[in-house]
Amino acid sequence: MPPLDPDITPDELDREARAELRSLPNDLADLVASHLVAAARALSAEEPEKAYEHAKVARRFAGRIGVVREATGIAAYHAGQYAEALGDLRAARRITGSDEYLPIMADCERGLGRPERALDLVRSREAERLDRAGKIELAIVESGARRDLGQHDAAVITLQRVPELRDPQPKPWSARLAFAYADALADAGHEEAATDWFARAMAFDEDGETDAAERYAELTGGLIEDLEEGYDESGAESGDLLDDLADDEEEVGDEAIREAVKDEEDDADISDGDLSDDGDLSDEGDLTDDAADGEPADGEPANDDAAVTSSASEVPAPAAPAAPAAPAVPSASAGEEARDADEVAERPSATSAPSYGPAFIEPDFGDVLDGPEDSEDPVKRQA
Questions:
Q1: Closest-CA residue to 67 (of 121, 24, 5)
Q2: Angle (CA) 219 221 222, round 5°
Q3: CA 243/CA 109 separation, integer angstroms
Q4: Which domain holds residue 17?
Q5: pLDDT digits (tens, 9 = 90+) for 339-374
Q6: What is the pTM of this model?
């Protein structure tokens, strides 16, 4: 049994948690409460292994009390004991009926190398009952699971769909959300946009909750101390910094859109060649078909990014009117000018809505089916 610090008292425990311990004898309730306090202190001191040891003592004497199983599960999660954390949080969920820790449970599945099960929890009915903070945390976990599966574009778009990502006002989740988005951008190869978003996460993260400052320094090659000194001397507020970033992102976003569209043209050409040879559809092929059919993979309305991709890949939508016959052999320059004109016409203007990072095509999530028609073979749908 790990020793308790002399200054720890059971009265430090939260009043609601103390109320749950009333079913225990007084001496035992005080012992359990003291170890829960010790576990909380150890977590605050970034000593998760010590916190887990104290939490296990509390579980040994009060394993049927919800607050004890919750505390043990959280301590195990921070200590990297994902299987134990998942078991304790499941038990706490059965005891209390609360879904509050569903995001942590999904992240435990990721830690155990099971991103598919993490996505199952994301799509569960219980996830719909979470409050806004819980849904944002779950979106962060979903983005990580998509990255685990190699779906880097989907990981970025998962967070782009969170409205709070563009909120300039600091909220409890702002630093984590901006950091997760920057991390997804960096993983997808968009370092310039990722640098801007790491800077945004730094502006929100006053308590050092994330590694945004370190990641920003890695991408820019600067020193964290110099960045902090320059920020203090300038006297700039976090709101001013966010406004500057928003202005910069419009320029970065436009350039990134053009580059992304050109990349997708090349990918579409390669994908078409593979289809003609093998008759098999890759993830990129499914993704392009979904954009052309106007049916996003996750069931949401087609967005501007899908429209840009449809124009770039030159795949006619089935519902579109028949186009007039094109010249037999158009020149390369004429074709490029036509594509550029279509891109300019369909790209949203920077004045209508601010651009936050590069645009991505609507991905084929693969594991989400909208209806019976989506379960058909994709080759048959193309035919």
A1: 24
A2: 115
A3: 37
A4: 1-98
A5: 444 444 444 443 333 334 443 434 444 544 444 444
A6: 0.61
